[in-house]
Amino acid sequence: MTTFVLIHGGGGSAFDWHLLEAELHGRGHETVAVDLPVSDPRAGLGDYADAVVRAVGEHRRPVVVAHSWGGFVGPLVCTRTEVAALVLVTAMIPSPGETPDDWWARSGRPSSDIDDRYELYLHDVPHELAQRVLAHDGALAEKMSMERAVREPWPLAAWPDVPTKYLLCRDDRLFPPDFVRRHVKERLGIIPDEMPGSHMAMLSRPGELADYLVQVQP
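-> structure tokens emitted (218 positions)
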């Protein structure tokens, strides 16, 4: 049995993982889905990582799964507690000293030119489910205050020495595949794994994502 620690992206919440959690539980594994302290303007990247570590509690050697903006947090967690592996799911990959705000230009991520949140993030998620998620996360976003976290330089001098995998979602409109392949090669020196799905594949393809995570665990 493995414990999977699930870190949501910016503008998201632990609720984003609920279908994946059910799939992993059905396969005999445990999950810890964490709500990051995005409503606390005093919270920096280290505080986000500490919130995850507190949620991990007594779980031993979990697999950390970081989605999207959570890519800035997942590696920090790996330096604060013993983990078995880190899996980045269509995630941002920070460089030492880079702020989350600066990542967008420094990474070379192309503009999507899509304003509709459903079409950008959730276009392959059943519409009723997508609306529930957008309503839930949107209510939390009204209290969001990430001023410190998005402007804080990523504090690590190098990537943590843990087994790291990257999962690319081929239908992602926020982080398109060609950009992601280049980004992963430049910053991690590895070839990403790939599956179909939008940026929110944990909602559109939770079974396939669960199968992938179970397969890649050490």
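The chain is about 40% helix and 15% strand.
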